[in-house]
Design goal:
It is a single chain. The protein is of the alpha/beta class. The chain is built from 13 helices and 15 strands. The strands form 3 sheets. Strands 12-11-7-10-9-8-15 form a 7-stranded mixed sheet. Bound molecules: nicotinamide-adenine-dinucleotide.
Length: about 325
């Protein structure tokens, strides 16, 4: 299988590495808006540099990975679907639910495989937790708690074009909530504030937020986000059910614990997403390749991308209006 990589930035490089670890699969072409990142990645992966249009039309490309900025996804998805290529697309699919619906129509009409890259579903610990839930290990799910905090905020220039914390950052957690609840939320209530950096508030966004999702059965999910955590990338999940509790803790830089007269000490959490989710990115790509090669179902789908976006829109609206939003 030959994969064309659109976008050779941070996430494009991660996906190129994952592809190189899969037998029988290679990066055949790369494209970027700038020559330097494309040439660098082409040299590292043995690929040919092409323009985005050439790559999508190329008979040397069976599938595309879209790792370009979010506002370019719409056009690239339409072009790739028309060219009958399987599509692996970074999250969020687009900032607008209506535009995602357009993409969904194009993908469904073309009948091409499509993966929305919610990588956290492929984290071995979170995936194991979800399997245990699905197998009924703790009985009926009652409360899902997701703690997700970045080590430090991105630059203000990024915040200004990010679509806001709910669509840019919490979208991963909203997808995780759907993955674990086993039921669609029917109501979203959100609060938020700029407690980390007042400049983020001036840019019209929040850096600290909490969301409560409720389901028709009464199941609850609480999500806590911050753009800052002094101890590293904080990624924890706990699910409480009728018969017990499942918890996935942080991955630390190492497992050495030190004990002195001052007490017990452990390592900081792994710094950020590139380290923390390295294995998840590899498993995500392997799932995509296996599904395309064997014609099996792909999950998360473009519909999952849309549903997470609708939750992010509702959270944003609830934060602005101060009242829960019904879905
Ligand atoms: N799943 C995750 O964990 C995760 C992590 C980071 C980023 N992302 C997503 O990945 C996407 C890219 O983010 P990034 O951090 O890698 O950005 P980045 O800026 O590091 O890389 C994007 C690259 O795309 C290139 N580019 C811009 N327009 C292009 C076009 N039309 N055709 C080809 N190349 C083009 C840029 O020159 C740049 O090299 C975003 O949608 C982001 O939300 C997802």
């Amino acid at each position: 299988m030959r994969i064309g990589l659109l976008g050779c930035g941070r996430i494009g490089q991660v996906h190129a590495q994952s592809i190189q670890h899969i037998d029988g699969v290679r990066v055949s072409a790369v494209a970027d808006a700038f020559a330097e990142p494309a040439e660098k990645l082409a040299a590292a992966s043995g690929a040919t540099v092409m323009s985005s249009d050439e790559l999508i039309a190329s008979p040397e490309v069976d599938a595309v990975v879209i790792g370009t900025p979010t506002d370019t996804h719409y056009d690239l998805i339409h072009a790739a679907a028309s060219a009958d290529k399987a599509i692996f697309c970074e999250k969020p699919v687009d900032m607008s639910a209506d535009r995602i619906r357009d993409c969904m129509a194009a993908v469904n009409t073309a009948g091409v495989p499509f993966l929305t890259a919610f990588n956290r579903r492929f984290d071995p610990n979170f995936a194991h937790l979800q399997t245990q839930l699905a197998e009924g290990a703790i009985g009926n799910v009652e409360i899902v708690s997701i703690q997700s905090r970045d080590p430090s905020p991105p630059p203000i220039s990024y915040i200004e074009s990010s679509g806001g914390l709910f669509r840019d950052m919490m979208i991963h957690d909203l997808d995780m909530a759907r993955f674990l609840l086993g039921e669609e939320p029917v109501s979203v209530y959100a609060v938020g504030a700029a407690l980390v950096d007042p400049e983020i508030g001036k840019a019209g966004d929040v850096d600290t937020a909490a969301v409560i999702l409720t389901c028709a059965s009464g199941r609850i999910c609480q999500i806590s986000n911050s753009r800052r955590a002094s101890y590293g990338y904080d990624q924890r999940i706990e699910v409480h059910g009728a018969g017990g509790m499942l918890r996935a803790d942080n991955m630390l830089e190492h497992t050495v614990e030190m004990a002195t007269s001052d007490g017990f000490g452990k390592a900081p959490a792994q710094h950020f997403f590139l380290e923390r989710y390295a294995e998840a990115y590899r498993r995500e790509m392997r799932h995509f390749v296996d599904a395309v090669q064997n014609g099996t179902a792909i999950s998360p789908s473009i519909e999952d991308g849309l549903k997470a976006q609708l939750l992010a829109d509702a959270a944003s609206q609830s934060r602005e209006t101060g009242v829960p939003v019904a879905l």
